[in-house]
Amino acid sequence: MRIGIIGLGLIGGSLGRDLCLNPENQVWGISRNPATCDQAIAIKAVHYAAPDISQISKLELAQLDQTDLIFVCTPIAAILPTIAEIKPYLAPHTVITDVGSVKVAIVGEAEQLWDRFIGSHPMAGTAFNGIQAAELELFKGRPCVVTPTDHSNRHALDLVQAVWQSLGAILYQASPPAHDRAVALISHLPVFVSASLIQVCSQEPDRAVAELAKQLASSGFRDTSRVGGGNPQLGRYMAEYNRTALLSGLKQYQLCLEKAIAQIEAEDWQSIESSLTQRQTERPDFLN
Ligand code: NAP
Fold this sequence. Notes:
Elements: E1 2-6, H1 10-20, E2 26-30, H2 34-42, E3 48-50, H3 53-58, E4 69-72, H4 79-86, E5 95-98, H5 104-113, E6 117-122, E7 143-146, H6 154-166, E8 170-173, H7 176-202, H8 207-216, H9 219-225, H10 232-241, H11 243-265, H12 269-282
Parallel strand pairs: 1-2, 1-4, 2-3, 4-5, 5-6, 7-8
Antiparallel strand pairs: 6-7
Helix pairs in contact: 4-5, 7-11
The chain binds NADP nicotinamide-adenine-dinucleotide phosphate (NAP).
Residues 6-12, 30-33, 36, 73-76, 78, 82, 99-101, 121-122, 124-125, 129-130, 231, 234 line the site of NADP nicotinamide-adenine-dinucleotide phosphate.
């Protein structure tokens, strides 16, 4: 298969590394920074790469008009402009998907730009970003949601799903609004909860206590602070492009915190234990 990847960072680079392992795939890439393109070729995340589509179109081996599938893996704000930019260079059969962490802000307009567009979102990430963070098998065993609509092309949907499945992802389908509400709860809300936790710790006014806390921080703090200490631009775009659902989750969270504060102030230890017992039984439902 001939595949293009635009945005060679954590997600684009990881996709490329897996896709290049299959000798039947020819993978070209585009990333803003020429050094990123060189690094992507060096780590075998792509066979060819250049900083923009006009340069890729001149690479005979890349055969742009014969590309079957393009993954747009840029930051969220660049996804729609990227599709608009590459459109004139593509043959009508080419399927485009994206990996953006929000879907409502992207899918409707992307479908208008390109009728063989299918939204995707692999639920996989690390605390790192950029091509140097690209990992093999990042998507293996991880959920990946595709967000077809009534206008989606059936062949395009089948192709996108088949490629994610070939990388070991566990596929789900959801409408773009359902996707955005669900990921607000389990992905975007945790970023802000976790970032607030780091903030509270780093703002401890007693320097001796702050230093001791740093020394004692272990696996629990590593787990709870990971997503808050990740890519700041990604967190900003989650808030900007999924504002309503994120605000709703944050306000629910605020209510839960207020309830916990009231219980502790009232020294209502029994209610606290009951509440934590309930959470202990609910947690496994969210762990794949
Ligand atoms: P990332 O590591 O920062 O990678 C994005 C790369 O895109 C950058 O390294 C940059 O590379 C390149 N880039 C930026 N603007 C571009 C443009 N206009 N044209 C071409 N390339 C451009 O970020 P990421 O974590 O891979 O995220 C990429 C996408 O995946 C986002 O839409 C995000 O919502 C989604 N996503 C992220 C995660 C996660 O947990 N990280 C999970 C699922 C989905 P250079 O400037 O170095 O060329």
